[in-house]
Amino acid sequence: MDIFPPVIATVGGGGTRLYPLTLDQPKPLVDLCDTAIIATLFRVLATQGCRRFVLGSKGAENTLPLNNYFKAGEGFFKRLGMNDIKEFAYQPQYDDKGSADSLRYCANYFDVKEDMLVVSGDNVIDINLRRFINFHREKKAVLTVALKELSEDENVSQYGVAEINGDQRINGFVEKPARGKEPSRMINTAFYLFSPQVREVLAEMGDSARDIGGDLIPYLTEHGYPVYGYPVEGYWIDIGTPERLLQAAMDFLGGKVEHYAFRNEYRPGQWVNPATLDRIARYLDSGDIELRGKVFIGRNCNIEKGVVIENSHIGHTSLIERDSVIKNSMVMSFANVKRGSLLNRTIVGRHSTIGTKCVLDADQSYSKPGKIPVVGENVVLPQESVVGPGTRVAPLKYSYKILATGKFSQLGTDDRNIYFCEK
User: Fold this and answer.
1) Which residues are CB-neighbours of 135 under 8 A, at least 6 positions away?
2) Are 190 and 124 in contact (CB under 8 A)?
3) CA R_g for the chain
4) pLDDT tens digit string along 313-368?
5) Model confidence over 22-70: pLDDT tens digits?
6) pTM reported for the whole predicted model
7) Between helices 198-205 and 99-109, what is the axis angle to 10°?
8) Please, what's the b/e burial string for 247-276 (b: 16 or more CB within 10 A of its CB; e: otherwise)?
9) Are 155 and 216 in contact (CB under 8 A)?
10) Nearest to residue 353, comparing CAs of 312, 391, 324?
11) Ramachandran angles phi, psi of 380, nearest 5°
C-alpha cells in the first residue's frame, strides 16, 4: 500500500462570508499570497508525498473555475519540481447533497480501495502527514480526525468540539457548544483520514449520509466504529472570513507554516521577485522606497519613490504610486494603488484601483472593531475615499447578489460601487 493516500477535496458552498472576494469565484480559489487557498493546501500535501488529488466539487460555479485553474494538474506539479505525477480528477456532474455524499460518490466512481485523505477546500493545515497516517493505521481506525487544541483565550463555540477519551478515541462532537459547556479545547479541523471500510458504511447509511460532520461522524461514533483524534501540532486555519484570510497571509509572511516557503529572498524576511527588483533596486538602495518587517512583492510590479511597505504581501503585476503607505495588508495581483494612499490592515482584490489619497484603515475608531476593510475585485475606488473597519466594496452590478443573501446591509452606493457590511 502506498504510504500517501489519495486526497479527496470537498468543495461546495457559496462562500458568502468572504464576499466580495467570492462574488465571481469559488472560495477555494481566493488568493492567499498569490496562490489559491486550495492550491496552498495541496502544496503542503504534495511536498510531503501526495500525488493523487480528486476535487469533489459541486455545480458549474465551483467545478469549471477549479478545472480551469488546475486542469489535469501538470502545471501544479511542475511548479513544485515534481515528475512522478498523477492527473487531477474531478467529480462528474453529480448534484451531491453534502460532503459525505460527495465522498461516497467520488470513492465509488474512482473505485478507491485504500485509505482516503479527505480535506476541506477552504482550510490551510500544516501537518506531518507521515505521523498522521501511521497513527491512523496503528489504531486501525475507520476514521482519524485531525484535532487542533485552541488556547483558553480562543473561542471554541464556533466549531465542532471533540469528546475524547485518554486513548484519543472520539466519543462524539458537540457542535458549537455554549461558552463553558465545551467538552474539550480540541476542535474538528475538517481534515480526515478514512479507511476503505467507510465505503461500506456510506452504503449502509444510504441517503442519510449527507454531511461528514453532521451525519457520517455521528453515525460512526454511535455505532461503535473506531474513530480517533490526532492532535495537530503545526499550523491550521479555517479561512471563513476576510479577517482570517488576512491573518493567514500574515502568518505565511511570519514563517508560521513549515511546509511553505517564499522564493527570491532580498533581505531576511523580505522577498522581492527579480523582475520587480530590476525596476525598483535603485530606489531601495537610496532609501526612496522603504520595506519594513516581513514583505513579499510579486513579479512585474512597479513601485514609485516615497512608498513605504510594512508587513504586507503585494501580488504580481501591481502598480504602487508615489508616497503611498501599505501596512499589515494583502494587495492582490493587478492592483493599482494611486499616489498618497494609506492602506492599513486591509485586503484589496485583484484588478482593483485605489484612487488618489484614499484611506483604507481597520484601526479607525468605528462601530466594527476587529473587522477589516475589503475591496473586491475590479473595483475602482474614487479618490479620497475613506473605507473604515468592516466596510466592503464591490462593483455595483453585484448589488442584488450581495443583498439577496440577507447577511449584509447596504451602506451606500456611488456610480460604480456598492458599499456594504455584515449585519
Assistant:
1) 144, 228, 230
2) no
3) 22
4) 999 999 999 999 999 999 999 999 999 999 999 999 999 999 999 999 999 876 66
5) 999 999 999 999 899 999 999 989 989 999 999 998 888 889 999 999 9
6) 0.92
7) 120
8) ebbbbbbeeebebbebebebeebbbbbeeb
9) no
10) 324
11) -115, 105
φ/ψ region of 264 (left if φ > 0, alpha if ψ in -120 to 50, else beta) reads left
Q: Are 27 and 122 in contact (CB under 8 A)?
A: yes
What cell does 120 get?
476541506
Strands 308-314 and 53-57: unpaired
Residues 6+ apart with CB under 8 A from 387: 346, 358, 359, 360, 361, 373, 375, 381, 393, 419
176 Cβ neighbours under 8 A, 6+ residues apart? 157, 158, 159, 160
What DSSP character marks residue 151?
Answer: P
Grid cell locating 302: 512597479
Nearest to 114 by CA among 133, 90, 129: 133
| SS3 label, residue 184 | coil
Question: From CA 220, how far away is CA 224, in angstroms rounded?
Answer: 6
Please tell me whether the peptide bond between 20 and the residue prior to it is cis, using omega within 30 degrees of 0.
yes
User: Angle, to 10 degrees, between the axis of helix 60-70 and the axis of helix 37-46?
Assistant: 50
Element holding 81 (H helix, E strand): none
Per-residue pLDDT reduced to its tens digit, 137-147? 999 999 999 99
Helix (H) or strand (E) holding 173: strand 170-175
| Number of other residues whose CB lies within 10 A of the CB of residue 280 | 21
